[in-house]
Amino acid sequence: MRNFLYIVKYTVVDIINQKSFFVLLAVSIGFLLLLRGCYSGNYVVNGKSLDSVTVAWHASIIAFHIVAGGVLLIAAILSMNLLSRDRDDGTVQYMLSKPLARITYVAGRAVGIWLVSFAFMFVLHLTIFVITLISAGGAMPGYLAASCLCSVNVLFMVLLVCTMSLFMPDFAAAMVGIGVVAVSFVADSLFHAAQSRLGQALLANHPAGIPGWEMVWPKVCSMQYCAVSLIKGDVFRPLGSVHPVLVMAGYVCLAAAGLAFAFQRKEI
Prior knowledge:
Elements: H1 2-16, H2 19-33, H3 36-39, E1 43-45, E2 48-50, H4 52-80, H5 82-89, H6 91-96, H7 102-135, H8 143-164, H9 170-195, H10 197-202, H11 212-216, H12 220-232, H13 244-265
Antiparallel strand pairs: 1-2
Helix pairs in contact: 1-7, 2-7, 4-7, 4-8, 4-9, 7-8, 7-13, 8-9, 8-12, 8-13
């Protein structure tokens, strides 16, 4: 356990020592501060004026999805060259020359990236939460809990890209991870929209079931919809019979097992 925690700490310090990380965080927070302008405007929908709390509510939900999706991209970028860089600069050879198991090393590196990515996302979501509380005077109790739930998606992305980077070039590994998430967002969004009243009305004469591949595809987008249901206090209705939390937990375990197996057999 001590070796594992040392590798996690080493990874976290290695990432946050890069100036670009804090520049990206500062720029992201700066963009989020622009949300305050949305709360002070006057909006009229169907002849009815919307109060600042209602506007803040919808703006915060949109910002939540943007931040959660953006951090998945950041996690892919941080993960894609981690193991290959360690191999090229001799870090992995140096670490494994000590009494350190391979699975401990790769697990510590992956968890370190996940912690940094999740902390990045949580800080941005906390910023939105505080802006909404101060500017609109309305608290969103489930906002931070929803951010924690989305950390499962971040962990899946880290494990998937790290695993793929052992079999293909770094950029291609990142593209695979981004592609899996993109398909999930497109497919899940379409089927969740079809479940709405408007979607059911539009498809009344053209009923369409959920294809089999969609049932087993990673439910990254559905996890975000589930997280948003915590904010709204609504009952989440999954697309299939299996809840997306269980689906993503299974994929996290599968990706972790694949990473451990592949790294054990990787020639160093």
